[in-house]
Amino acid sequence: MPKFGIVIHGGAGTILKEKMSDDQEAQIRATLRLSLQTGFTVLKSGGSSLDAVQRAVNVMEDSPLFNAGKGAVFTHDGDNEQDATIMNGPTGQAGAVGGVRRIKNPIDLARTVMEKSPHVLLISAGAEQFAEQHGFEMMDPTYFHTELRRKQLAAALDKERASGGNDPGSITLSEDGKHGTVGAVALDQEGRLAAATSSGGMTNKKFGRVGDSAQPGAGTWADKVCAVSTTGHGEYFMRGVVAYDLAVNMQYRGMPLAEAAETTVREKLDATGGTGGLIAIDREGNFVLPFNTKGMYRGHLMPGEDPHVAIWEE
Predict the structure, then answer these.
(1) 98 is in which domain, residue-wise?
(2) Which residues have a Cβ under 8 Å from the Cβ of 244 and sit 6 or more positions away?
(3) 264 by DSSP, 3-state: which?
(4) In this predicted model, what pLDDT tens digit does every residue of 86-125 receive, in sequence order?
(5) DSSP label at residue 137
(6) Tally of CA atoms within 13 A in the half-sphere of 251 that contains its CB
(7) How far are the Cα atoms of 18, 37, 95, 226, 308 from residue 120, in angstroms, in the given order?
(8) Most buried residue among 111, 123, 222, 226 by CB atoms closer than 10 A?
């Protein structure tokens, strides 16, 4: 049986079982399974890992349950600004967008940047101008407005006001950090690796902040050895260049995937106070899903298996 498969995440944080209803949990697990099955169908039919990760991420971007696309969190000013990166392992090409407000599926625009422009990263109005030139439907900003995210922003603003504006904790991944970045990594039947990451960033973020999900090497990496997508407090992932660090551990330190991932989490997150997790797959079909938070929405699907999804240590 050929080696291929897909691994996904839907965010990491303080995901407490006692605060999640049975219905919420069922919806989250169902969407994770749909994402896996959508990407795996591409791979099973002989399609590319690049198509597989894009389609898998689309499913989560279209759901209000995750902090990407439809479910993106609000900025301090009440906007929804999104970041995304896609990377093609065989070629090393990458495309990314940052701070876009009117793109239904930011990962689609990131791929278009990779394939249709000479650049790697486009941001804000320029990225949206590029999108219009390439036929993207520009969404009304209200498409991204959900009641849950409004409540999370209100809570963050209340916390900020109570601290006199000096509490950095008022800028959060979301309420209790429960919802975060989405991503996918895949290996196709031709042995090609790819990775994709999409995020609405942090609730109450200010000043045009762009996160690691828009930066190849920080939140996303794919080469001929491994593919990586991360989730968590983006500033730590940017400073530690976490996604690329895992690849470096494999290529230059000779570590197998599992050891490389464990070392990266220990040295670049645990040691610095960073929180989050990552998913990764190598060219042999080995995969890992480590995290140092209370939970991480995640899943994997390989040939001959049923979709496996998880939230907590299980």
Answers:
(1) 5-310
(2) 216, 217, 218, 221, 228
(3) helix
(4) 999 999 999 999 999 999 999 999 999 999 999 999 999 9
(5) P
(6) 12
(7) 42, 29, 5, 20, 33
(8) 222
Q: How many residues would you count in the chain?
A: 314
CATH number of the domain at 120, please. Answer: 3.60.20.30
Number of domains in the chain: 1
Q: Give me the catalytic one of 181, 197, 220, 264.
A: 181
Our answer to whether residue 181 is catalytic in this structure is yes
Residue among 243, 218, 235 at smallest CA distance from 275? 235
Place of tokens 């950090």: 177
Res 178: pLDDT: 43
Taking the C-alpha atoms of residue 228 and residue 289, their distance in angstroms, rounded to an integer, is: 10
C-alpha closest to that of 198 among 108, 275, 266: 108
The answer to whether 130 and 118 have CB atoms below 8 angstroms apart is: no
Going by C-alpha positions, the residue among 196, 172, 165 that lies closest to residue 54 is 196
